[in-house]
Amino acid sequence: MSQPGAKYLNEKSLKALELLRSHPYPVDNFHTSKRYAVLVALIANNDGDLEVILTVRSTLLRTGAGDSACPGGKMDLDDVDLIATAKREAWEEVRLPPSESQLLTISAPILSRQMQLVTPIVVYCPNMTTADISSLCPNPGEVDAIFTTPLEYFLNPQPELHSFIEMQWTHSLHRIHSFEGCGASNHVIREQELTSKNDRRPTSSLASSRKIDRTNVGWIVYGMTANILLEVGKIAYQREPAFQMYAQGQITDVGRNAEWFNDSFRPRSSL
């Protein structure tokens, strides 16, 4: 692996890390014991810019098959906090050692489409660069590929590679972003294992569209993962995306979202 040190980062990236470190943790008023966390792991590329480590979920999974995502999962009873959850999941999914990542900040919790409350844990891996991506190992059954993409790309993508849809979700209109061409130049593909016909699980048409060979064209990052990376990018580079991020009237206040969640999922009296 490359040697640790700030010499691998340019001035813009050093400033971005400082802005992330100084960003205050969000107030978390969501009332639920079921918690999930993802690791937004940043590493330097050859130009000293920051890239994020992402995975392609196995096409054998029951939910999110074939989707691009940050490593992560559900908090276990043995996890001391959500930071431990995110680091443990990254170790299990891609063999990123917990000791290799340094905490920068915690981003605001976000609801997945399955109504899971997900907290992004933002870290920097000083001992790694994008040239070291081959040292990571996709976990069979969970991850089909690992790739990296510049964090700043999500703020200023090529127009033809960015699209969005709008939909009514939870308690307001939401804009769902999609970014194509991610990871084409830097990725690790898991060697496909032979599986019997009975072992194959059905996947959605959306997941099926992601099963094509993307090693030359890259993968699609969309939905919750895209939103997380947009929010982290805004903090790191202190600017808005080159496009309108939110739908008109979209509720983005974490406190209001927590109120809606707590009211919608609070235990109901049987009387």
Largest sheet: 9 strands, mixed
The total count of strands amounts to 12
Helix/strand-derived category reads alpha+beta
Strand percentage lies at 25-35%
Concise description?
Residues 33-172 form the Nudix hydrolase domain. The chain is an alpha+beta fold and 271 residues long.
Features:
28% strand; 271 residues; single chain; alpha+beta; 3-stranded antiparallel β-sheet
Describe this structure in words.
This protein is α+β, with helices and mostly antiparallel strands and 271 residues long. The chain has a single domain, classed as Nucleoside Triphosphate Pyrophosphohydrolase, CATH 3.90.79.10. Helix content is 21%, strand content 28%. Strands 1, 2, 3, 4, 5, 6, 7, 8 and 11 form a 9-stranded mixed sheet that branches. The protein has a 3-stranded antiparallel sheet with strand order 9-10-12. α1 crosses α4. The N and C termini lie far apart (62 Å).
Question: Layout of SSEs?
Answer:
Elements: H1 11-21, E1 35-44, E2 50-57, E3 68-69, E4 72-74, H2 82-94, E5 102-106, E6 110-111, E7 117-129, E8 143-150, E9 162-169, E10 172-182, E11 187-189, H3 205-209, E12 219-222, H4 223-237, H5 254-265
Parallel strand pairs: 1-7
Antiparallel strand pairs: 1-2, 1-4, 2-3, 2-8, 5-7, 6-7, 8-11, 9-10, 10-12
